[in-house]
Amino acid sequence: MDLLVLGGTAWLGAQVVRTAVTRGHTITTMARARSGPPPSGVRFVRGDRSRVEAYPAGRFDAVIDVARDPALVTTALDALADRVGHWLFVSSCSVYADQSVPGGDETSPLLPALIGDYSDEQYGEAKVRCEQLIRDRMGQDRCFIARSGLIAGPGDSTDRTGYWPLRFAHPATDDGAVLIPDAPNQPVQWIDVRDLADWLVAAAEAALAGTFDAAGPATSFADHLTTVRSVTGHSGPVVAAAPTWLTEHGVAAWSGPRSLPIWLPDDYAGMLGRRAEEAAAAGLHTRPWSHTIADVLAWELQTGPGRVRRAGVSPDDERQLLAGRS
């Protein structure tokens, strides 16, 4: 199979390339290579995706695209639609209009499609527009849309999925106490980056069509942390703080500096609780939760546990917050 990966140097794209190479396919990647070095063993085209003439020549059996800007999807379609057999697009579960109730599926109402220029504040709306453009140009039977949930695994540069394994493995306090949000019943759901890449390549091989929520089985926040503690061997105190107390003390939810990652406000309770049955029926296989956690921890330790993180509470901040709870 001749496969074109638009990107291929960042986290998911690079994993897709590695998977496709392992499965014996001929790979071309196109990127600016700002997220990392070009992958080895593939044809690499350095180019600006906003220019039609920058795209590689030739015909391809399939394209795998992870774009978030509809303008770049439009340019890619203009350049490639007539010489590509199948279009695989990584969308997001952020496309759904109501994230408050767990158990939603692919039929749930969507946000309005983005009109105008892309902004991060309208990420979900932009992905909706990207999906529309691909379906309109390629037709339903020539496109595969994977609405990804939270992506986890080694290499997670957002630092969300590695925060809890690293903190429980290396607590900030002498007694091993770890601060957590008091949200035991919140759903937690993710897809390992390697499982998502495997499924994307398999879908390209099979010319699979349709729209799917790409996520693994959901668990509760309490069970998630229980698994993390089991993998890391943590036996110290676990200190639960009410969401209101955390907010009052400047601790954010979900992601970013001074946050407790993967914790979500109540009005986003369904964001990590999609049904995801259609993807499983279409061949998405997910590894055990504990395997991803162990591999993420190994990557965190190799990368350097003392580095400045993009998400989480620093050890100094956690010690101060825990002192305020006593």
UniProtKB/TrEMBL annotation:
InterPro entries, alphabetized: Epimerase_deHydtase, NAD(P)-bd_dom_sf, NAD(P)-dependent_oxidoreduct
GO MF terms, alphabetically ordered: aldehyde dehydrogenase (NAD+) activity
GO cellular component: cytoplasm
Pfam families noted in UniProt: Epimerase (PF01370)
Residues spanning the membrane: none
Ranges where the NAD-dependent epimerase/dehydratase domain occurs: 4-206
Protein name: Nucleoside-diphosphate-sugar epimerase
